[in-house]
Known about the structure:
The longest helix has 9 residues, at 44-52. This protein is 13% helix and 38% strand. The chain folds into 2 domains: 2-84, Rhamnose-binding lectin domain (RBL) (Jelly Rolls), CATH 2.60.120.740; 88-182, Jelly Rolls (Sandwich), CATH 2.60.120.740. A 4-stranded antiparallel beta sheet has the order 6-11-8-9. It has a 3-stranded antiparallel beta sheet with strand order 3-2-5. The protein is built from 4 helices and 11 strands. It is mainly beta.
Amino acid sequence: xxxxxxxxxxxxxxxxxxxxxxxxxxxxxxxxQLANIRxxxxxxxxxxxxxxxxxxxxxxxQKDIGKSDPCRGIYKYVETTYTCLPAIHVIxxxxxxxxxxxxxxxxxxxxxxxxxxxxxxxxxxxxPARLTKNVWCSNPSNKVAARCNGKxxxxxxxxxxxxxDPCRGTYKYLEVAYVCLCK
Length: 183
């Protein structure tokens, strides 16, 4: 599935990998594969949130979140609901600076930040494919919030020395979602 926010960033509300009714994704399936409607993987919401929250675009397929089978023999699907939070979205490629700023009389409030890689296309220009193929490699970070919250402007370097190295051999980027609040 694909989540997209044209304005703001994604905030996942619900996520299911399993089966909750007999109608969804049922065409051509035998009744025995639709029988269990109380079937869901326990960690789906957390997996989808960690992958998609505070991003503008997020694509996940069933293989990515269906690591375990919550109900063998049942045909499963992925279902999610999300909202788009108004936010400023900043990406800084590895070794670059992220600049966050608000108007006079306003201060930065970080929704979320992560350093790593969650998308093959971001910060990939002129990079070999082997450096951008690992898209399950990012660490949420509270370092940006600790450094920038409450300030009118703030800059932070997207680097392993600042955030650690969640995946060796992968070209990373810093992704930040924030809003400006009145002082």
